[in-house]
Structures are given as structure tokens and as C-alpha cells.
Amino acid sequence: MAEGGKFGQVRRADFSFAPGYVNINHGSFGATPKVVAEAQRGHTAAMEGKPDAWFRRDYRKDVHAVREQLARYAHAQTDDLVLVENASSGFHAVLRALQYTLGSGDVVAVLSSAYPMVRNTLDYLAKMKGFSVEVVDVQFPVAGEADFVAAAEKLLESVPVDKLKIFMVSHITSIPAVVVPLTAMATVLKARVPSLHIVVDGAHALGQIPVNLTQLEAAGIEYYVATGYKWLYSPKGTAFLWVSKKSQEGIVPTIVSAEGFPSASFIDCFTYTGTRDYTPYCTMDAAFDYRAALGDSAIMDYMHRLATQGGQLLTSMWKTEVIAPERMYAAMVDVRLPTVDSDKVSEISTVFETEHNMFIVVYQLKGSDPPTFWTRLSAQIYLELSDFEKVGRLVLEIIDRPVDKANVLEPVIIKP
């Protein structure tokens, strides 16, 4: 079990990484501590040992206890929070309900920094229902929170406010990764459009920054989806959907089971969605135990401090810049690469994976002219500043050598 106050390479033994692997891209898929994985195996043994007792009673008690724990952690009411497999499942549940409120000429707005799943889902539904999708541009690098507030104000100027029905926004954007001023944006939007539904993608927030759903609800936010497997250390397939009590009617999971709608409550609809593996849900308490042993605030403080120091180190080594002020990132930092050669950037990604037992996200910044290329790096309790230094040194070495196009893996450059 982890011991409080000890971070860095000593913590790598807590995880199941391959020998020598440096997971500096934690943000994409997360990592599950061994002790949490072991707890899940215990739930699996119980499920297989007495299937009827487990599916009919036992796992439901565990899920209820986990929901109570999550509600305390995110400052919410337990009855307003249900478990889902991932952020996509939660979003689809919300949008499936809200689509019936939309008609021809109505507008659903989303920031240009939205995760592709959000954009793809909206584009699909727009074709089916006839509403329009308004993409509000946010130019990176950003100078501060005011850039996002200005985007909200721009939205109100660009569309008829009586047609603006839904606004979808990330709590922490994915690529580039910055903390979004949700309360400030919601205040601006709700002042002009009180009936606006605000849906938040919190996939990267839980475990990376404090989440207070009571405060967000007071600002006018009705829907919030968060994952546990990215930053909370719970197993893959763990997330939650929070819906303000006044907005829960009609919200059902993407799979309606024999116990679901229309007779079941909001909670019951999501508790059982058919015969499937619910052990990841049941194991979320083990992730909380792991965090408690280290100190929840200490984890967040260490990650932010490492991301800040890592960004400073790389900008110094590369003579470049970060994507946002330090106060606007948490445990992920985006740094401009010291090259504008797309072939070199492609090779950077390939060489890290094939020669150095690492994977780094590289991307071309949308709207940059001339094109600029960036990397998003994740700080974690099992990393330290020397890992960022290694990234900096290897990038410079790769840039200095001839490009070997024959060995470049595809695709490597993400275009958000």
C-alpha cells in the first residue's frame, strides 16, 4: 500500500507498468494501482462464486456505497449521481433526453476545444433533428480565464438567444489541456438565457482538481459527467453522471434494461443495465483508499507542482512557450515543440514509442499560422522532474538527426 508523502519513481512499483515504461501520457487512459486491481479481482471472485446473490443484491449495495462516497467527494447529493462506464455513456444519456427539446433552427453551442466525441455526437444528432451546432472558437495559447468568458460573450452575440438551447463545455479541456472557468462562463450565459441547459464534460477533472457540484449547480449548471479511471485511479469503465434534481426526468442510460424506464427511478435505471461486469464500479472505494493513504490534496499539489516545473524546464530547454498561464493547468501541461517540420514531429512520436519505451501526445495547434506543433504531457505521482528532462533532451536529439520516413508510425499527429 502507498505511504503518505512519498512521490516520484518510488510510486511506480504501485502500478503494473511494463519494465522501464514511463507513462508520461497518463491523461489519455489513466493507470490503476495494483492494490485497486487486486480489490477488483476480489469482486470478480464474489460475482463468479455466487452469481445470483451478487447480481440480485450484493453488487447493488457496493454501488450505493460508492455513489455515497463519490457524492461526498464531489459535494453533491447521492440521489443526483449515478455510475456509468465512461464520459461518452453519460453524454449520450443526457443528449438523448435533450434532443426532444430541439427543433429546426435551434442552436446547440460547443467550444472549439471540445473533445471530438462531443462534436461527433452533436453533428450526428443535428442531422437527425435539424438543429444547428455553433462552434465557438477559443484561440490558443490563451492569456487567461478572460479568453473563455469572451468566448461566451461572443456566442451570445453570434446566435439568436431565443434559439440557444444547450451549451456544452469541458471542465478541463483535453487537447490543449487547460482548466476552464466554468462558473464565470455559466454566469454570463445564464444571465441572458436563463433556460439554457449547460452540460459539462468533466472527464479530466475528478482526481486532478477539486470538484464542487453544489457550487456549479448554483451557477446554473445542470449536467456533469466525470471519469474515475483517468485521474482518480479507479479501474477502466468507471465514471459518473450527475444531473440536477429538477432535470432528471427523462434521463435514462443508453441501454434500457428489464428494470429500467418507465417504472424505475433515475437511480434504478442506471443501477442495472443488463448482465455485465459491474466490478469496476464496486472497486472505486479501493481507489479512494489508495488516495487517502497518500493524501488527496497532497496528490493534487504534487501533480500541479510537477506540471508547472516540467513546463518551465521544457520551455527553457526548447526556447518555446506553454499554452496557458500556470494557474490554468492542473496536472497536464502543453509545451510548444522546438520545430515546425511536420516530418520531424511525426518522428518524435514514433521514436519515443519504438526506441525509448514512452508515448507522448503531439499535435498541430488549430488555427496557428504558420503551423505550430505542441506536446501535452501529464504529471503524476509516479513521475518526477527527471522524466520531463528526459523528454526535453530526447526531443532535441531527434530533431537534430535525419528523418527516417520509412519507420514513422501512423497516425502520430493529433489535429484537434
Q: Could you explain how this protein is built, in words?
A:
The protein has about 425 residues and is an alpha/beta fold. The chain has 14 helices and 11 strands. The strands form 2 sheets. A 7-stranded mixed beta sheet has the order 1-7-6-5-4-2-3, sandwiched between helices. A 4-stranded mixed beta sheet has the order 8-10-9-11. Strand 4 (about 165-170), helix 7 and strand 5 (about 195-200) form a beta-alpha-beta unit. Helix 6 packs parallel to helix 7 (about 180-190). About 45% of the residues are buried.
The major sheet is characterized as: 7 strands, mixed
Shape: globular
> Into which percent range does the helicity of residues fall?
40-55%
Give the amount of beta strand, in percent. Answer: 5-15%
Total DSSP E strands:
11
Q: Quote the average pLDDT.
A: 92
Quickly give the structural class.
alpha/beta
Q: Unreliable runs, pLDDT <50, ≥5 residues?
A: none
Radius of gyration: 22 Å
* Widest β-sheet, arrangement of strands: 1-7-6-5-4-2-3
Order of helices and strands: HHHEHEHEHEHEHEEHHHHEHEEHE
Query: How widely separated are the two ends?
Result: 38 Å
How large is the count of helical segments?
14
Short description:
This protein has 416 residues and is of the alpha/beta class.
Spell out the key features of this protein.
416 residues; alpha/beta; four-stranded mixed β-sheet; 14 helices; 11 strands; 42% helix
